[in-house]
Amino acid sequence: MKKAFLTAVGLVALGGPAIAADLPARTYTKAPAIVAPVYDWSGFYIGLNGGGASSHECYTITSVAGTPIPNTPSEGCHNATGGLVGVNLATSFLRPDGRRDAETPTDLVVEHMAHMLDHLGEDGVGLGSDFDGAKVPVGIGDAAGLQNLVELMRARGFGEPLIEKVCFRNWLRVLGLTWGEAD
After folding, report:
1. Residue 113: pLDDT over 60
2. CB proximity list for 108: less than 8 A, separation 6 or greater
3. 81: closest CA among 51, 59, 58, 60?
């Protein structure tokens, strides 16, 4: 009986793979390569860098060190508003033909800046470019090249107070209005 049982188990074990042998062999194919799309700046784009802030604050003293003050004096109310438009350094926004060409003259940035200053005033213009992905004039290249732009601003007759406003003071003013002045 024991021999018959082992023989039956052996036949079943050997019969299993014979059934699988009837199946077609798996065909493996290599997965297609992932091709990242190339970003294309062709087309129509409008770029605007800017910021703004507005606040209305009223201050009233109601207590000093937790002690209520009778006939509470008011320090009054004030309104604060302001905004800023950034000069875009991307050559496709500077050039009349919209080409992305690093050989674009850096003077063109100063031309745009002067136009903006004429229309917005010296408190409404700042530097506003993103060096990540934008093709900027070779005369600037990267953030370290902004000193070349400052030299062109000086050559154009921009005074130091105006250069400071455009380069950083206007941004500090608008951010101060937005986030509150630093203590």
Report:
1. yes
2. 94, 95, 137
3. 51
Q: How many residues are given for the chain? A: 183
* pLDDT exceeds 60 at position 19: no
pLDDT grade for 10, boundaries at 50, 70 and 90: low
What string of DSSP letters covers the chain? -HHHHHHHHHHHHHHHHHHHTTSPPP---PPPPP-PPPP---S-----EEEEEEEEEEEE--EETTEE-SS--EEEEEEEEEEEEEEP--HHHHSTT----TTS-THHHHHHHHHHHHHH-TTSEEE----SS----TTT-SGGGHHHHHHHHHHTT--HHHHHIIIIIHHHHHHHHHH----
98: left (phi over 0), alpha (psi -120 to 50) or beta: left
pTM of the model: 0.57
In angstroms, rounded to a whole number, what is the distance separating the alpha carbons of residues 62 and 69? Answer: 6
> What would the two tokens of residue 75 be?
């320090």
Strand partners, 74: 60
Report the phi/psi class of residue 141: left, alpha or beta, with left for phi > 0 and alpha for psi in -120 to 50: left
DSSP 79-102: EEEEEEEEEP--HHHHSTT----T
Distance of CA 55 to the CA centre of its chain: 25
